[in-house]
Automatic annotation (TrEMBL):
It comes from Chryseobacterium camelliae. InterPro entries: Acyl_CoA_acyltransferase, GNAT_dom. This is Ribosomal protein S18 acetylase RimI-like enzyme. Signal peptide: none annotated. It comes from the Bacteria. Pfam families: Acetyltransf_1. Residues 3-171 form the N-acetyltransferase domain.
Amino acid sequence: MTTEINNSTTEDIDEIFRLYRIATDFQKAKSAVHWPEFDRRMVLDEILENRQWKIEIDGKIACVWATTFSDPLIWEEKNEDPALYIHRIATDPDFRGQNLVAGIVRWAKDYAVLNRKKFIRMDTVGENKGLISYYEKCGFKFLGLSTLKNTEGLPAHYDNATVCLFEMKLD
């Protein structure tokens, strides 16, 4: 089995959106909070800026996510810290249960250090206790729940939502 982490390409955009739809359907089945239909231009920009990533297993996209080095609307004053922010992890159901988030975390540690970052951060919308526990098992500290002050420019699922914040401090 060959596993690789690479930047997503423009040829991957339909698969990325397929995985987002699957993730959204899964979220709808589990809770009231779910992802909206994401803006295709936003994802294309992430691809062109080398901020959209994929895990490929034997040539098939198993998981996708996006990164940024700035996230002021969610992290507010903490955005001043040198951090890597991970967003929108979506896994193909054929690859669930293979601990892909742990693989993302290993990759993110190296990528953050390479880019002189001291933290890896993530957020989720809604208080999903199972997801909180899973991210803690992956090495993140759960910082608690937050209500965002300004969601203008963020995807729709952030409007009037409670956000769980997660952080991993790097040595």
